[in-house]
Design brief:
The protein has one domain: Arginase, Chain A, CATH 3.40.800. The longest helix has 20 residues, at 124-143. The protein is built from 10 helices and 10 strands. The protein has helices spanning 31-42, 56-62, 65-80, 105-112, 124-143, 173-183, 200-206, 255-272, 298-309, 325-341; strands at 2-4, 17-19, 22-24, 48-49, 148-151, 189-193, 212-219, 244-249, 276-281, 315-319. It is an alpha/beta fold.
Length: 342
Amino acid sequence: MKIIHSDDNRLHFPQGELFGGELVTPFERPSRVEYILRRLKEVGLTDISAPEALDRAPVEKIHDAGYLDFLATCWDEWVSEGMKGEMIAASWPARRMVQKRPRNIDGKLGYYALAGETAITAGTWAAAQASCAVAQTAQRIVAGGARTAFALCRPPGHHAALDMYGGYCFLNNAAIAAQMFLDQGAGRVAVLDVDFHHGNGTQDIFYDRSDVLFCSLHGAPEDAFPYFLGYADETGAGAGEGFNLNLPMAPATPYSVWAEALETALARIRDYGPDAVIVSLGVDTFKEDPISFFRLESADFTDYGARIAGLGMPTLFVMEGGYAIDDIGVNTVNVLQGFLDA
């Protein structure tokens, strides 16, 4: 298995996240990648290389131009306004407010943010572009005929919507990779999101399209971030009706129940018959994850990796969440090994 990774992920390391009324060290931090790399090498998965240069064309097909301009310029604008700390949104265009982009950088920040836990720093844009380049390079490997590849992306991407960041995500790596498959001749692509949190950004991007099937297994939005998307009755709109499958689950969901939901998603993917499958691989379904509430054991990740392999389809793994840092390496690599050994 070829693995793509960029050391530029370290350029994004906010020092504060608002959690439980306190500023804490962010759960999404560079050490997540280091633990995964260590475990990959321990089990002999050592075909690890740096990404090729970022291709902006598919990024611009997925994300709004004004949003991309904001990400590219916001830090310099923030500093020029005399701001001393990291960029954290403090206001939003809420219900019955005008949805217009402000001139002031503080207002722009709230306009493009979907949540307030995600800070932007001097290196965020560079890291986000490198993360996207990782996904693009791994996509080309699978499109070139490989059975699978692993994009060790950081920061993650599945919460990044058409024109919003949040949930630690800035560019939607899985969605951009899906667009690349289509641009290269694929007729249909499936995105299987196994992260604990609903992939609201991926749903937002493809909700009215039939060329990408989106299936997400996640914590019920009544109880879990991102709260305002991910209900079972969200099935797509217009041409996309029937091509969005949400499988929300309750607190303390065990693997037996989660695996049933996975089989439902896999059956839907088989029926859809895509040319490629992208797995948004979040391992925050683990029982010890600090910001999630499912109950998967480490061995369960191996099992579901094998189940995904059972599709028999070209498969790109794109790293998303997972915040039990001591276990993230084992759980992530278990999925990959389960797939490879099936």
